[in-house]
Amino acid sequence: MKRLLFIGFVSFLIAGNEQDPLIKDIQKSLMAPCCWSGTVYDHGHDQMENEILAFVNENKTKAEILKYYSSLHGERILSSPIAKGFNAAVWLAPPVLAFFAFTFYIVYIKKQKPVSGSIASSSPEIPFDDVIEKELKEFKL
Questions:
Q1: Which pairs from 61-69 meet CB under 8 Å and 24+ separation?
Q2: What angle do CA 20, 22, 27 make, to 5 degrees?
Q3: Residue 82 lies in a domain
Q4: Looking at residue 97, what is its pLDDT?
Q5: Are residues 81 and 75 in contact, defined by beta-carbon separation less than 8 angstroms?
Q6: What pTM, to 2 d.p., does this model score?
Q7: Which of 43, 57, 100, 124 is the most exposed place for a label (fewest CB within 10 A)?
Q8: For helices 46-57 and 21-29, what crossing angle results, to 10°?
C-alpha cells in the first residue's frame, strides 16, 4: 500500500512539473540510453525522468545535469553535439557551404549573358529544314 502511494505521489510530481520548461529542455537534450532511438522527452524513460526531476528539485542547473549524464554515458547521451573539436564542423559546415553556394550563384550564374535572338534559324546547313518547319506547324493544329 505504501509503495502504491509512493508511485502515485511521484507520478503526481512528474505530472505537475511536466510543464516546467527547464525539465522539458533537459529531457529534450538527453537521449534515452535504453535504445538510443529518441530523447528522454519523446521516449518516456521513467527512471531518467525521475532523476531529472530530483536534480531540478535540488536546484541543479541544466549544465550540471548534462555534465552528470555525460560522465556516465559519454557524449553520446547528448541529443546535439558540443561545438568543440571535430564536432565544431557540424555547426560550422552548413553556414560555410551556404556562403560558397551563394558566392557560386552570384559569380558564375548571374554573370552569364542571357541568350539573345531566336534559336530557330533558317540555315542552309540543316537539311530538310523547310519540311521540318511544315510538319511542326501541322502538328500544332
A1: 62/22, 62/25, 62/26, 62/29, 65/26, 66/26, 66/29, 66/30, 69/30
A2: 100
A3: no
A4: 94
A5: yes
A6: 0.50
A7: 124
A8: 130
Segment 50-95, tens digit of pLDDT: 888 888 888 888 888 888 888 888 787 887 777 677 777 877 889 9
**Domain housing 27:** 2-77
The number of distinct structural domains making up the chain is 1
On whether residue 87 sits in a domain, the answer given is no
Find, among 52, 42, 43, 38, the residue nearest to 10 by Cα.
Answer: 52
Q: How much of the chain exceeds pLDDT 70, in percent?
A: 74
The answer to whether position 70 is within a domain reads yes
| Residue position matching grid coordinates 528539485 | 57
Is the pLDDT at 113 greater than 60? The verdict is yes
Residue 15 has pLDDT above 60, yes or no: no
Q: Are 84 and 70 in contact (CB under 8 A)?
A: no
32 CB neighbour count, 10 Å cutoff: 21
Query: Is 100 part of a structural domain of the chain?
Result: no
Report d(CA 21, CA 109) in Å as an integer: 47
